[in-house]
Design a protein that fits this description.
alpha/beta, 6-stranded parallel beta sheet, 21 helices, 23 strands, single chain, 18% strand
Length: 659
């Protein structure tokens, strides 16, 4: 049902039908809101109330269309999440609230209001600023702790930060995707079929060969996710391109050595002035060598005499040989040339000072770098991550006042202001020598135009493309791969990568990372074993579901995390596990009422690791239906069979999503 709340309607609390307790509320109107709603409705089977500020903008029409007659999905349109709207949405009885608006002040205000209305509420809020997010999380948790010890929790997430690792792994192919967690890191790497593998590595997926027209999706999966031992053993080079593997490293990866700052001489002084200065220095050097040869003095003394002559501080060489006198005259003329050169340097630096204070420009010698187009929220996050990895980067931005320009200046990353389709911008960004082009603006047309122009200039250029409209993206993906089969085209959707983390947080769990498997996805998450019939009372080996989930880490009560546990280890109610799962598999594991209990859902002892600051092939919102076979019961246990999880259907294409 839909509850239109406007200034002329009856009071919201009276006009809205009472909602059953335990539902979830999502406030927002963009692509992330839409994908999050679909995950909660179809994967987790939750009762959801949507609060849409503007039903006519963004994804408002698609969100409004999700309303159901039975009230399992309720939509409130035309109002921001103020007190009256939250009360109408049933905030007092709600289990969780997600605030996905791309507006930090509005999110902050709504979060504080919601915490006061329901101290037991599980809050999931979207905040871009790390400092603000940390302080807000601390404040909200303190407020919940002091409200009769209600035990409400707060999770602060950033869509751009969640998506950054996958975007970076798409661009930097020579480095593994790293997932920092408690007790070390996970690294994800591809290895060819038949290659010798390190002990302890876990196969995540069998990657199918690439073709120009074959595009996998939920209806037609191309790659085999979480393969069984039989599937892995039967893989051949003819049908499998590579194996995606997960490895645990007990120690964090060592960062490259410090990068020394360089002076932006190229931006301060024009090429003509720099050539004049170089020529004058060469002239002084020639006079020094000639003086040394003519007088027989040491090179150091000859250089000193020439400097004195250039500065007009030396005595006339009246008694010296003719050659020395001629050289002294030339030195005096060189000194006369220094003053105009110094004046030109000063005037030019004053004229260029404003630009240099904002931007650093690419070196002419830069090569094998990554070009980022668009310095919005996503582009800024990717730029920061690449700078941390010591990967050379050049940014291109139309707006000199964009969010990421100041960040680029602070990180000393070169920025070119202009449109990438302009030949001079293409030339200044040194795209002819870059390794990867990343089009990360929030506009499909701009991203596509940039990629097409760059591919016309360099057909072998690797591109990472950000597109939001799935139907449009699928068409573009096929066309680019058919036209340029020699190099893969990569594409990612920020909302697709971020939605699982937001959904899991609403269920009280944490998604550590999203692992892109080209057009499909795997998720790394932590959860408790208690009350989950798919895990409790089973061995690690019996709990593995090919195509669904796999336990890769185990933590007993009071024990450290143990990676790649023994398949014969029995899982108990006191254990916590790290699983790698498909979207449907994780949805089945976390679904309330099917494999969990109320006590376990209220449990607050979660692992609190922070996912790293990270899709390259085109992704779809759903990775396809899976039928998870009923596991063999462990001795002494009689768990319920696992239900089949039907595939969720997107209601409409996504027109455009914000950063």
């Amino acid at each position: 049902m839909t509850h239109p709340l406007n200034g002329t309607a009856a009071p919201a609390a009276e006009s809205a039908a009472p909602l059953p307790p335990g539902h979830m509320i999502v406030c927002g109107g963009d692509a992330l809101t839409h994908r999050l709603a679909l995950e909660l409705i179809h994967l987790y089977r939750e009762r959801v109330t949507l609060v849409i500020p503007d039903p006519e903008q963004g994804h408002g029409p698609q969100l409004a269309a999700l309303a159901t007659e039975d009230g399992s999905v309720t939509v409130i349109t035309g109002r921001s999440p103020d007190e009256a709207t939250l009360i109408a949405a049933g905030i007092a009885e709600a289990t969780a609230l997600a605030l996905t608006m791309d507006d930090d002040p509005a999110v902050t205000q709504a979060a504080l209001l919601a915490r006061g209305l329901n101290p037991r509420l599980r809050l999931v809020i979207r905040v871009f600023g790390n400092a603000l997010g940390q302080r807000l999380e601390h404040l909200l948790d303190r407020e919940a702790d002091h409200a009769d010890h209600a035990g409400g929790s707060t999770a602060v997430l950033s869509a751009s930060e969640t998506a950054t690792p996958a975007l970076v792994s798409a661009a930097v192919t020579d480095r593994n995707q790293l997932i920092p967690i408690d007790g070390g890191t996970f690294s994800v790497a591809e290895s060819p079929i038949g290659a010798e593998t390190e002990p302890g590595t876990v196969p995540l997926a069998l990657l199918a060969p690439r073709t120009g027209n074959l595009v996998g999706s939920g209806d037609n999966p191309v790659h085999t996710l979480l393969p069984s031992a039989e599937q892995a053993a039967a893989a051949t080079e003819a049908g499998t391109r590579a194996v995606l593997r997960l490895r645990h490293d007990p120690n964090p990866p060592a960062l490259p050595g410090p990068r020394f700052p360089r002076l932006p001489l190229g931006a301060l002084f024009s090429r003509r002035v720099r050539k004049a200065a170089l020529g004058l220095a060469g002239f002084v050097a020639v006079i020094t060598v000639a003086t040394w040869l003519a007088t027989g003095e040491s090179p150091a003394l000859s250089f000193y005499q020439v400097l004195m002559d250039v500065a007009a501080a030396g005595n006339p060489a009246e008694d010296a040989p003719l050659a020395r006198q001629i050289l002294q005259v030339l030195s005096v003329f060189a000194g006369m040339l220094i003053m105009p050169l110094v004046l030109a340097l000063v005037l030019e630096s004053l004229g260029a000072l404003h630009n240099v204070s904002v931007l650093d420009r690419p070196r002419r010698s830069i090569a094998d770098h990554i070009v980022i187009i668009g310095l919005g929220k996503v582009g800024s996050r990717v730029l920061e991550r690449l700078a941390e990895m010591r990967v050379p980067v050049v940014a291109v931005e139309r707006d000199p006042n964009a969010l990421g320009v100041a960040r680029a200046r602070k990180l000393q990353v070169p920025v070119v202001i202009g449109d990438i389709s302009q030949p001079e911008v293409y030339r200044d960004a040194r795209i002819s020598r870059c390794r990867t082009l990343m089009a990360l603006t929030s506009n499909d047309s701009v991203n596509l135009e940039a990629v097409l122009y760059a591919r016309e200039q360099r057909p072998d250029l690797r591109v990472v493309l950000r597109l939001f409209d799935d139907a449009f993206a699928s068409t573009v993906y096929r066309a680019l791969n058919a036209s340029y089969p020699q190099v893969p085209t990569r594409s990612r959707s920020v909302s697709y990568l971020a939605a699982p983390a937001f959904a899991a947080a609403m269920m009280g769990r944490q998604v550590l990372a999203a692992i892109p498997v080209e057009r499909q996805m795997l998720l790394v998450a932590t959860l408790g074993v208690r009350g989950r019939v798919a895990l409790a009372g089973r061995t690690v080996g019996d709990a593995f579901r090919p195509g669904g989930w796999r336990v890769v880490g185990l933590q007993g009560r009071g024990a450290p995390l143990h990676w790649n546990p023994d398949p014969g280890r029995l899982l108990t109610d006191e254990d916590r596990v790290v699983v790698v799962a498909t979207r449907e598999g994780l949805g089945l594991l976390l679904r309330r009422g099917a494999v969990g209990t109320a006590a376990e859902e209220a449990e607050a002892g979660e692992l609190r690791e922070t996912a790293p600051e990270t899709d390259t092939e085109l992704v779809e919102p759903w990775s396809g239906p899976i039928t998870i076979p009923a596991p063999t019961p462990a001795p002494g246990s009689a768990p319920a069979p696992l239900p089949h999880l039907p595939r969720a259907q997107p209601s409409a294409p996504y027109p455009e999503e914000g950063d």
